[in-house]
Specification:
The complex is a heterodimer.
Chain A (H helix, E strand, L loop, with lengths): L30 H23 L4 H22 L7 H25 L6
Helix pairs in contact in A: 1-2
Chain B lengths: L22 H28 L7 H11 L3 H7 L5 H11 L11 H4 L14 H25 L3 H31 L12 H33 L2 H5 L3 H26 L1
Classes of the chains: A mainly alpha, B mainly alpha.
Chain lengths: 117, 264
């Protein structure tokens, strides 16, 4: 990648050049990151607790998927900075995922009726 | 490249970034979306195939416990030299727990832990792997945060720990695969039950592991570039952020691989 022309301000929105333009970076601090780490760790422990304390069932599977989705929200939102992006970008990326989660649960249920190979 | 001055009111008429992200970062997001589709298709396929088999009946194991008079899993795991293939698998095959027609419970397959030879420790090792990957995601995001402040030395430090985390995870996966393979599993054979179980395990964890490996390579490239001062000269550390997005995505996929292969 070429180094930007020194005469162009790479952060200037009024002087937009897609090959070099980047928005100015802002730090949001490290406190939130560590908070989300402890939450993710806690949710993983909750997963393991459910595994040993609850008998296998479709309800338990849905609990596991729901916990996975909650973990995904924290990873995408905080670690991947999605909550600081524009709503239009977040919608474009997140919306298709709802269909996928629906499809996952649906096909797990459908599999019950395929019979043994 | 020509540049022009336009008013901010025309968001979608060109000459600016409607999403307020750089071209590279937008493309990284779109790549990750398409990669998410690829992994979803694998997991959707897994979910459907897994439930087309009945699960290992828990009652069967409890009956065995009654007839043997002690915890059957511990009894077999401790037996002989505690190698799964020598005693544990044949005994559970004879008892009708491991057959080609029922999906083995993952806690009977993946119950090893380093230095705890012969103990029945389901889910502990894979939870450790999850912890390692989440921790390396945290060090990555701390590196991104340091880049946003323009702190070159802190980026070097956090990228170093992220690379270490990546190698630790890959080593754990190699160990997990070795245990499964030495018990006699191949992509077309599985001593614990249906061959499809092994085929899907190798396919999906292998595909994820290859993503982790690519991520480690990219992290090393960023680490070296940063030491050479490439980003300092460029005036921003967005490259760290873009590779960080990929690394977090790999962590995100592992959350779901963990859910589907070990919990469900």
């Amino acid at each position: 990648m070429s180094t930007p022309n020194k005469n162009i301000d790479i952060h200037d929105e009024k002087n937009y050049d897609p090959t070099v333009w980047v928005p100015k970076a802002h730090s949001h601090g490290t406190k939130d990151i560590w908070l989300k780490f402890w939450i993710l760790l806690g949710l993983t422990i909750v997963d393991v607790a459910f595994y040993f304390l609850m008998a296998p069932s479709m309800a338990r599977n849905i609990i596991f998927i729901a916990l996975g989705v909650i973990k995904a929200v924290y990873i995408v939102g905080t670690f991947m900075h999605m909550k600081h992006e524009k709503l239009s970008l977040a919608t474009m990326i997140v919306l298709p995922m709802f269909f996928i989660i629906f499809f996952l649960v649906w096909m797990m249920y459908e599999g019950n009726f395929w019979g043994t190979f | 490249m020509s540049t022009q001055t336009i008013s901010n009111s025309s968001t979608w008429k060109g000459g600016n970034s409607p999403f307020n992200v750089s071209y590279g970062k937008l493309m990284m997001w779109i790549f990750l979306l398409s990669d998410a589709f690829t992994f979803s298709s694998l997991l959707i396929g897994y979910g459907a195939i897994r439930y087309s088999f009945p699960s290992t009946p828990i009652e069967q194991i409890e009956e065995l416990q009654l007839s043997f008079g002690e915890n059957v899993q511990e009894k077999f795991a401790h037996g002989a030299d505690a190698h799964h293939g020598e005693f544990f698998i044949p005994a559970l095959k004879d008892a009708g727990v491991f057959t080609e027609f029922q999906w083995p419970s993952p806690d009977l397959v993946f119950n090893h832990f380093p230095f705890a030879h012969g103990l029945h420790l389901p889910l502990i090792f894979v939870s450790l792997m999850t912890l390692i990957l989440i921790l390396s995601s945290v060090t990555m995001v701390l590196g991104v945060e340091a880049g946003q402040r323009g702190d070159k030395d802190a980026v070097t430090k956090w990228m170093f720990w992220t690379i270490i985390g990546g190698f630790a995870f890959l080593s754990c996966q190699a160990w997990e695969w070795t245990n499964f393979i030495t018990a006699g599993a191949t992509p077309w054979a599985n001593p614990y039950g249906p061959p499809t179980f092994a085929a899907l395990f190798f396919l999906v964890t292998g595909f994820h592991g290859f993503h982790v490996f690519s991520g480690v390579v990219l992290n090393i490239v960023i680490f070296i570039n940063n030491i050479n001062g490439t980003y300092e000269r460029r005036g921003h550390y967005e490259m760290v952020e873009k590779v960080g997005l990929y690394w977090h995505f790999v962590d995100l996929v592992w959350v779901f691989v963990f859910t589907f292969f070990y919990l469900i």
